[in-house]
Each structure stands twice: as C-alpha cells, then as structure tokens.
Amino acid sequence: MKRLLLVFITFTFSLILTGCWSQKELTDLAIISVLGIDLAEDGRLIGTLQIINPGNVAGGMQGGGGTEGPPVTIYTSTGDSVTELSRSASRKISRSLYYAHTNLLVISEDLAKNQDISTILDAIERDAEFRITADVVIARGVKASELVKVLTPIDKIPANKVIKTLKFSEQQWGEFMSTSVQDTIKDLASPGKEPVITGFNLYGDAEEGKKLEGTQATEPVTSLGATGLATIKNGKLLGWLEGEKARGTVWVLDKIKQTAIGIDYKGQKESIIYQVIRQKTKVSGTVQKGKPKITINVAAEGDIGETKVPIDLTDPNVLLSLEKKLDKEIKKEITMAINEAQKNKADIFGFGQSIHRSYPKEWKKLQKEWDSVHFADLEVEVNVEAYIRRTGLRNNPHFK
Amino acid sequence: MPPFFKKKKPIKIKSKKQIEKPDEGANVARPIGDSLSHNLELIKQKTGKSTDVIISEFILQTLPEHKAAVIFVEGIADSKNINDFLLESMLNNQAVLEKATQSDTIEFLSEKVLAIAGVKKITDWNDLFLALMAGDTIILVDGSSTGLVASTRGGGEQRSVEEPGSQVTVRGPRDGFTESIRTNTALVRRRIQNPDLWVETMKIGTVTKTDVSIMYIKGIAKEEIVGEVRKRLKSIKIDSILESGYIEQLIEDQALTTFPTLYHTERPDIVAGNILEGRIAIFVNGTPFVLIAPAIFIQFFQSVEDYYGRADIGTALRFLRILIFFISIIAPATYIAGTTFHQEMIPTQLLIAIAAQRETVPFPAYFEALIMEIAFEILREAGVRMPRAVGSAISIVGALVIGQAAVQAGIVSPAMVIVVAITAIANFATPSFPIAISARLIRFIFMIAAATFGFYGIILGILILVVHLCSLRSFGIPYLTPLAPVIPANLGDTVVRLPLWAQKKRPELTTQGHDLRVGEKQKPEPPKNRDMVNKKAKKGD
C-alpha cells in the first residue's frame, strides 16, 4: 500500500510539476501567412510579415456589430539575416511569431537578381516551424512588401489567393507552376537542374490595395496575378519566360494538366481550339560516343473546345490532319522553350539529371561543363503525339 | 496527537473481530419441539408478532383429531395456492384423513393428502424460518417434531415481464428480466430447452438471505470457471445483497479499475447467448440485472442486434462503436492538445476559425474544456435524477444557458461546445453503460495528460490504458481475449462479426468442449441448376 501511494504521488507530481510545458495558447500566437523579403539599399534584408487577424477572417459569430477590420495586418522589420529580421519584428508585434502556417514566401525580383536566394532558403529550411512545403513566388517589378500588402476579395487571406491562383492556373492554363521551398532547394542543390519560380505582379495602385475599400468594389482596385516564370541560375534570377515559352517549359517538366492550344485551319489563325485534358511527358537521356542526347516524348489527349470555321469533324481524316497540326504546334512551343533555356545556359528542365540517372559514369565527365558547353549544344529530339478524343457535345459546328 | 484518535484505535480492532464471526449461532441446528402451542409461540416470538406472518390453527380430522397450523407470510406466499390446495385438502378431506394413524400423521399428510408439489419435511428451526421467509408455507401438527414445507412461493404483486429499459433493440425479443429470480431463470430456460442447463441456488447475505443462482450449461462451461464462481460466491460474507451490483463488487478479480470485469444485462437473450459461449449467469433475487462471468473487453462493444442482423452491417457497427469509444475518451483531450501545443497540426483554415472563436475566451483551452465537461456532467446527472415532469426544464436550461448564452457571452468558444457535444453523444452511443461510465472518467485523465504534454501525453495515456487493459482478468480470463492473447479461431466475433456459418468455434478460454457450433457446409448458396428460371421461360414463351 505504501509503495502504491509512492507510485501514485510520483506520477501525479510528475504531471503537475511540469506545468504546461511548451504550451502556447492560440491567443498568444501571431499566425504569419506570408513572409516577404526585400533587399534594402544598404544591402540588409527587409522582411514583411503578413499576420492573420483571425477575428476578421472567420466572420462574425461573436462580437458582431463591430467595425470590420482587414483580414491581415502587416509588420515590417529589417535585419542582416532572415532570423534577425524575424526576431527583431517582435519589437512591434504583441504576440509570438508563429511560422507553422506560413504557406507563402515572396522574394523580390531585386533581391533575386542581386543575391543568392539559397542563403534565404537555408534559414527557412533550418527553422522548425516554417514549412518547406510553402510556395515560393518572386515579386516581379514590385517590392515584395508591396505585393504582400495587397488585400484580396474572394480568398480573404492574400496568401491563399496567391497559392490557389498558382495551383489552379497550373492545372488549367499551364503557363505557371507552384514551386515549394523544398522543390527550389532540391533544384538549387542538384547539379543537373535549375529551378524555375513563378513571378507575381501587382495590377493597379499599390497604396489603394492596402485599403479594405479596394476589395469592396466589384472590380478590385488592385489585384495580384501571375506573370512569367523566372529562370534561376546559381541562385540568382537570370531572366523571365513568357507565354508559349513558359508553357513549353511547364510541358517539358510534365506539370501540365490541362490547357488550350489554338491551331490554324484553312488559313485562318487560331481557328480550332484544342483542350488538353491529360498529357504525359517523358524525358530520357542517352550518351553516345560521349555526346549526350535528350529525347522528349509527349502524349497528349484532349477535346475540340471551339471552332471558328466550318469543318467536318465527322471525317476521321480531318481529325487526323488536325492531330498532326497539333503535334507541330506543341512541338513548336517545347522547342522554343528549350532554345531559350539553351541560350541562357540554364538547365531548368533537369536534362542533366536524366543523363545522370541513365549514364552515371558518363555524367561525371559531362558534369563540369554541363551548363556552359554540353547543355547549350544539346541535341534534343521532341516527339509529340496529340490525340483528339472527343469533339465536345457537338460534331460539326452549327454554322456553315 | 489529540486524544480523539487515541481512543479510536482499540475500537477498530474490536469491530474487526466482530466482523470475522458474524451471526455465529445461525448454523447450529435447533430441533423443532413437538408441542404445537409451544412452537407457535416460538415463531411469534422470533418474528416479533409481525402482522404479515399469518398463523392459522385448525383441527385436522384424523382419528384421533390433531391440532395443526399453517404458517405463511402474507404477500410473498401465494395465498390462492394455500387456500385451494393446502387448506382445502386438509380440511375437507375427512374420508382420507380418517385412515391416518397417530404415529405417521406427517408422513401421511405429505404422501396422501397435500395436493401440492414440492412438499419437504423439516426438523430444524433454521430451515423453517428460511423457508417461511422465502414464501413457503409451514405446516405443523401437534405432537410431531417434524414440520412440512409446501412450496407456495411467488405470491403477491410482481412486475410482469416487460420490455427492458436498457439495451433496447429494434429487432429481437421484447421480454426482459423482472425482480423475481424464478421468472428470470424460466425466461432463460425457455430459450435453452436442454437438461444440461444447470442451475445452482444459494442464499447469500447474513441478514437478507437473498437467493442467488448460477446458471451454466454442463459440458460447455469450463469446470474450473464454474468452480471459481461457486467458490467466490460461497466465500461472500456480507449482511445484505440488495442488487447484483453487490455481488459484482465482491467477486471481481481486481477492484482498482474503472473497467467492468463482469457483464450485466436485463435481456434473457443476451444471457442465453452468453451461456452458450460457456459463460456463467448469476441471478440475484430482487433485481432484473443478471451478471455474466467472465466478461471480456470486446463484449461491451457487442450488441445482440449484431447477431440478429446481417454480418456486414454488424461489422460496420462494431467499427463505429470502437471509434465512438475512442472519441468519447480522447475528443476533448485532442482539442486541448491541438489548440495549445500542436497548432501546426491543424489545417490553416480550421486554425483560423478556432483562433477567431478563442479571441474573446478569457480561459486557457484546458480550463475551458474542463468547465464545459463538468457543466455537461452536471446537466447529465441532473437529467438522470430529476423527476420526469421537470426533465424538460433541464434541456431548456442546458441548451440555452450552456449552449448559447455561454458562447454569446464569450466565456466558451463554439468549437468547444461542438467538441463537448460530440463527446457526449459518443458517450451515449456506447452500447454498454458500464464501459460508457468508465470512458467518462478516463476522459478527464486524458484531458489532464493533454494539457501537460499535448499529443505526447495522449499517446502516453493510451499506452498506459492498453497496458492496464492487458493486466485485467475476469475470473482468470485475460480481459482482452481473443485480441491479446490472440486466439485466431475466436477473432471472428471481435472487431469484425463474421457470418454465423463462419464462426465455427466457441470461445476457447471459456468453454471446455471442442465440438463445433455449426455444421459443415452451412454457407447458404443458390441452387446449382437454373431449372426454376428456364422452365418457366419455356412455358411462357
């Protein structure tokens, strides 16, 4: 009985004496949704923290009737390093900074051009709270702080707006892709691949975008949108890929889910629109006599989305000819993207990796001069097979 | 030390001694005398001239005549039986009675006169009072030191067999046990019409002398367990047994647990089913709750309807019930751990929603959860104990005050109300009441663990819980069988409920026989040929 009592006391005290170890109440946390990083003129880093204002996001169950505030609040702080700016931000913020729900990292174009982004990513990767699955975007043409400050109407938290835009644009249009911190670090670290990061731009007035009134009009005064893919080389921004070149890049990376491609028919430009519903791209590398070669096989399936000219879609020969045109069109986009990358000498497609995987011994020789010599002169064979599976809900167009 | 304590000590020792030898004189035989008037006087003296003890004297018209008396307790003896069969046969039966000689009047009465079954001779006062108080009728004849006991039990008002209040089912028999032990054993015997269904009865309780019966099937039940049950029941020394719960607390394997190690039920079909699995039913007079021993953990998640309905649905419901059990244990603990330790585990949108609700709450999450849980327990206790007429007031106060006003006042968050509500409903949905109560208690321990260590504390708690469950025994049978130790043959009736034709073996640890429950090839299937369909088709076309 005495022993039992002793065990009981030990157990109870060990529970009680710990207190509430490492406990953090929700009301003591500043949930950061976006971290934006700019380069100051003196070379220091300026961090912009977008902190969620839970009461203003989740709608008015309680407290109701009060004035509606903005869903997020912005604080900025300066420091020599990411950690320093984060710590020094506590001077202004009444709660403890909580990065576990930071889903977006915004790096300004200025910073990406002038400094190796790897050093910033290291801080994020090392931190226990920050998720490496957070998306990375580059603020194109604007400061990261300006981008972070813009309020958005439908998804009240701007971070969600950016993340979701990237996700659905990648799925439905294919010129952009969401890149996580993890992906970027992987690409930066591996020798045979360079990262690409989507750029985000601000449309409209940056000052007006900060105000809640801006989001209350049917057409938001200021909005955010994706523009172009940034090519990164050696951790620095090299240039931007736009339009078809960007889509070609996404295509080679096998990230395209759906997109629309216009082809010319009977002399009329972009008169038949083809909707890709699924595709598969395979990249394989070979080395013959010390010379590397890349083969890209694309198989795309889709429907006819739109016709602008009378056409007999019941005729299989017509469809076959359309498919051939599609092959050419897709191949053109991919080739454009590859040529651009070769010009930049940045292997954003990971061709080096495919060679490495299949020919590890040869890769060792090629590795040293991969970007400058081998990639730039690389022979790339592109085979595209597009299939028209359906013509939509109609056969022939109703006009003649 | 104050003198108060000093004084108390010697008293304690004294009382211990007294307990050790309760009612010592009770078992010493005291023969009945042969003078009727003296005997009746003794009875009156012993019963304190209780008005419900009826003594009616009459003249037995034997040759020569004898004075005689019938003694019974009004209300528990069946007075119709006494009048129609006992008194009738002894008073209006002169022709037969005249043949009796003086020496064997008692013998003669029991063999030739009394038109009632179950007549016994007694010579001892103890037996006489036991029989009298159980509802039997005593016949004493002047000049004879032997009395007769006629079985006239079951008189007076009794609750009829009704649908049981607990363990209600949609499909299945509607009868439930009553307070009468005979009715209860009969309800089971009607279901198992087999001479191997054995019943043993004993009287327990030095003052109450309550009838306690054990029932099992000879040949299926394991002899060791039957012996153990019998031994434990016989070793009970207590003044009263008022409900089967008294027995349960006295014969459990271990007292330091919140988990029930004996099953109790109001339904005869559950008892029958368990007896067929080798378990032993313990009936206690005066309560509709019958104990079943040994009980295993998984039994508390089984409902009779699992067996009456289809196997697949039964299995799905079993899964649900186990989930329910876990919810009712760890739901508030998970809320506490999630909101105070592991905010990163909660999806962003949900976290923001919870954070928004908690902005105005003045308490830490743990305290908030504790307040709500205790408030709910108070409501629930009030709901159970209140008279039915005021019951609706409880729900109004509960729903309005706790549910709405507290949230609107910003004292608790709506998310917490949801968590408490889910926990409460999960607790109600647990099919067995004792395990639900057990979960209620354990929940608070888990809440403390979650408040100190977060999910780590919850996992530790679960670990301790599992170890504790593994350490439990019910009449020597491991509590977690057939899951731990694993008995593959019996796994078909645990988390999953296999079809009856696939559950071939009885529970290994509680039965002794190795015979199968079902025969070979019991799986139903359609006829092999398709004549029924084709012949008709030919005719029709």
TrEMBL record, chain A:
Domain of life where this protein originates: Bacteria
Subcellular location: Membrane
One of the record's GO cellular component terms: membrane
Keywords attached to this entry: Germination, Lipoprotein, Membrane, Palmitate, Signal
Domain Spore germination protein N-terminal: 23-198
Gene Ontology process terms (BP): spore germination
Gene3D superfamilies for the chain: Nutrient germinant receptor protein C, domain 3
Its membrane topology: Lipid-anchor
InterPro entries according to UniProt: GerAC_N, Spore_GerAC-like, Spore_GerAC-like_C, Spore_GerAC_C_sf
Domain Spore germination GerAC-like C-terminal: 227-392
Protein family according to the UniProt entry: Belongs to the GerABKC lipoprotein family.
Name of the protein described by the UniProt record: Spore germination protein KC
Organism of origin: Mesobacillus foraminis
From TrEMBL, chain B:
Gene Ontology, cellular component aspect: plasma membrane
Bias kind Basic and acidic residues: ranges: 514-541
Keyword Acyltransferase part of the UniProt annotation: no
Entry keyword Ribosomal protein: no
GO biological process annotation, one example: spore germination
Keywords: Membrane, Transmembrane, Transmembrane helix
Pfam families xref list: GerA
Highest taxon of the lineage: Bacteria
InterPro entries given in the database record: Spore_Ger, UPF0353/GerABKA_families
Major place of residence: membrane
Coiled coil location: none
Localisation per UniProt entry: Cell membrane; Membrane
Membrane topology label: Multi-pass membrane protein
Residue stretches spanning the membrane: 280-302, 322-341, 389-409, 415-437, 444-469
Region (Disordered): 151-175, 509-541
Family affiliation: Belongs to the GerABKA family.
Protein name as it appears in the record: Spore germination protein KA
Species of origin: Mesobacillus foraminis
